[in-house]
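Figure 6 in text form: structure in, sequence out.
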């Protein structure tokens, strides 16, 4: 009976962890460039005295879904979307280099080019990009940032920096605690000249909201089954206690 109770309790705990992953995906269904986290269950035999006759459930997050989201046009000059494979290099909150597909760029009060979440965008020189004051800013397909300086003629454009675009092997990438992609072994990816941007556009999240909702319902039902099993274990214990009293 007690083994039945612990198996049910463990199953419920693992389902709650899976539900947390699914809920996070659903909450980011409209987040620019977000990549859904994958989760799966697998059985873990319990080893000890005797044969491993029982198995506990374990939830794990093996990877993230790195497929591309839908590209939609915004018309905003600082919005960019990565066309096909590739990533935009940014500075993570921890100070190291990381990679994102979120191209909702803007300039802060100091002229620093940052993403919508405030992460500095890294240039070809490996440092955050600072854009001088300008009347117009253009981001070309290869990541080159051109400006029209204040007071200059409309035909005057000057290239000031180039966004670092990379395309490492997806098998070597993982998502960190900030929701950004990094290399598994650490370090920095090399710039890739083949990566192209689409100006005036953004890449949507690759989360399928309908699929996430269905998954949420399925996980809720699985959780209820584990709770019922724990209730059945308690009922068995109560019945056993009653029979012992009668004896």
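Output sequence:
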């Amino acid at each position: 009976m007690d083994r039945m109770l612990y198996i049910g309790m463990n199953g419920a705990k693992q389902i709650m962890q899976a539900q947390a992953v699914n809920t996070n995906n659903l909450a980011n269904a409209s987040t620019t460039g977000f990549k859904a986290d994958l989760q799966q269950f697998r059985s873990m035999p319990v080893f000890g005295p005797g044969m491993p006759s029982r198995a506990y459930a374990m939830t794990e997050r093996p990877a993230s879904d790195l497929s591309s989201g839908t590209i939609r046009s915004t018309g905003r000059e600082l919005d960019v979307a990565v066309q096909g494979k590739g990533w935009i290099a940014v500075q993570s909150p921890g100070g190291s280099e990381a990679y994102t597909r979120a191209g909702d760029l803007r300039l802060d009060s100091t002229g620093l080019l940052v993403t919508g979440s405030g992460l500095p965008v890294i240039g070809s020189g490996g440092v955050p990009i600072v854009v001088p004051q300008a009347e117009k800013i253009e981001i070309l397909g290869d990541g080159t940032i051109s400006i029209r300086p204040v007071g200059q003629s409309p035909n005057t454009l000057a290239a000031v920096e180039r966004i670092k675009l990379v395309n490492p092997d997806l098998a070597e990438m993982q998502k960190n605690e900030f929701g950004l992609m990094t290399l598994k072994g650490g370090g920095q990816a090399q710039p890739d000249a083949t990566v192209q941007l689409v100006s005036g556009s953004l890449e949507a999240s690759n989360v399928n909201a309908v699929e996430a909702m269905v998954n949420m319902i399925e996980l809720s039902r699985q959780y209820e089954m584990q709770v019922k099993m724990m209730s059945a274990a308690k009922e068995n214990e109560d019945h056993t206690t009653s029979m012992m009293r009668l004896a």
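Caption detail: The first strand starts at residue 40 and ends at 45.
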